[in-house]
């Protein structure tokens, strides 16, 4: 699962701070020991690999004159033992007054429990007209369309995300045979979509033997989860369901962000026939909704720090 990485963001911030403050002697400690290590600069011939990078990076970046940076933007992500980051800023060289945009990408790997840089790429913001002899216009057209109101980029907002998952689906599929299993799964998905829609939600997508849905109402989502569980109690399917509420990013009908990841982790922690909800959803469900919740239980969720309070949604809402 891809997730934001505060740890890698902090490493990138320290790396760039060391360059800006001319404390470059520490830079080799951030580099991978792999022969795959590569440094790509913006000038002709600035592509070096392996030990050459480790031996020369400090002296190379020590040659950078004094500069200041503004409007620094860092985005960092990780997935398993791989991480990456983008860095952008506006720079001014204090000696000459030269200004421009600094753009960098980083790739990291885990080595002995720590993130080490395996690729570092600096991009010079030359115009496409100077470099290619043409002007790219696709993104400019997209921006113009958005400004005219005819295109929507990913937008944020408060939503409740619900994941459902069939317990022991592989064993059931093998026992039933492909044809009967696909027929049962199709009927299940159609039933889930009907219930989600009836409760003001949207079935975003099916995920193998599970589903992901979104709701503008936390109460509607809780009631939908209860109805889905009730509809499968007499069937051959045992479901686990997880819900979480928070700020999500929507783009082209799909949803992204920490809220989505946490809802999926909560669903994974549920047992057969169990609905687990986050503390955020519990607080937002209307007191007159007819929902009954257990006492909070603290769980550790993979990919999230610390312990998180979850509640079982009991009975029918």
Automatic annotation (TrEMBL):
<dbReference type="InterPro" id="IPR037401">
    <property type="entry name" value="SnoaL-like"/>
</dbReference>
<dbReference type="Pfam" id="PF00211">
    <property type="entry name" value="Guanylate_cyc"/>
</dbReference>
<dbReference type="InterPro" id="IPR001054">
    <property type="entry name" value="A/G_cyclase"/>
</dbReference>
<dbReference type="InterPro" id="IPR029787">
    <property type="entry name" value="Nucleotide_cyclase"/>
</dbReference>
<dbReference type="InterPro" id="IPR050697">
    <property type="entry name" value="Adenylyl/Guanylyl_Cyclase_3/4"/>
</dbReference>
<feature type="domain" description="Guanylate cyclase">
    <location>
        <begin position="160"/>
        <end position="267"/>
    </location>
</feature>
<dbReference type="InterPro" id="IPR032710">
    <property type="entry name" value="NTF2-like_dom_sf"/>
</dbReference>
<dbReference type="Pfam" id="PF13474">
    <property type="entry name" value="SnoaL_3"/>
</dbReference>
<protein>
    <submittedName>
        <fullName>Nuclear transport factor 2 family protein</fullName>
    </submittedName>
</protein>
């Amino acid at each position: 699962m891809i997730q934001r990485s505060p740890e890698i963001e902090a490493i990138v911030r320290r790396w760039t701070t060391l360059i800006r403050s001319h404390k470059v002697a520490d830079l080799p400690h951030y580099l991978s020991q792999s022969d795959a290590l590569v440094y790509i600069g913006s000038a002709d011939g600035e592509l070096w690999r392996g030990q050459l990078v480790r031996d020369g990076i400090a002296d190379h970046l020590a040659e950078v004159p004094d500069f200041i940076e503004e409007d620094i933007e860092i985005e960092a992500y990780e997935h398993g033992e791989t991480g990456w980051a983008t860095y952008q800023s506006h720079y001014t060289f204090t000696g000459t007054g030269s200004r421009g945009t600094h753009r960098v990408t980083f790739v990291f790997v885990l080595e002995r429990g720590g993130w080490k840089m395996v690729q570092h790429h600096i991009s010079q913001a030359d115009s496409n007209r100077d470099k290619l002899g043409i002007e790219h216009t696709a993104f400019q057209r997209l921006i113009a369309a958005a400004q005219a109101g005819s295109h929507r980029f990913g937008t944020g907002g408060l939503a409740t995300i619900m994941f459902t998952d069939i317990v022991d689906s592989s064993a059931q599929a093998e026992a039933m045979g492909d044809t009967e299993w696909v027929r049962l799964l199709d009927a299940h998905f159609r039933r889930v979509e009907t219930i989600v829609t009836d409760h003001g939600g949207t079935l975003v997508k099916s995920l193998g033997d599970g589903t992901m849905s979104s709701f503008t109402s936390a109460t509607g989502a809780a009631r939908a989860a209860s109805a889905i569980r009730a509809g499968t109690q007499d069937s051959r399917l045992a479901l686990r369901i997880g819900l979480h509420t928070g700020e999500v990013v929507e783009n082209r009908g799909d949803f992204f962000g920490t809220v989505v990841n946490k809802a999926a982790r909560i669903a994974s922690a549920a047992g057969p026939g169990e609905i687990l909800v986050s503390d955020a959803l519990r607080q937002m469900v209307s007191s007159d909704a007819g929902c009954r919740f257990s006492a909070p239980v603290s769980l550790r969720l993979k990919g999230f720090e610390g312990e998180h309070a979850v509640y079982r949604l009991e009975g029918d809402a």
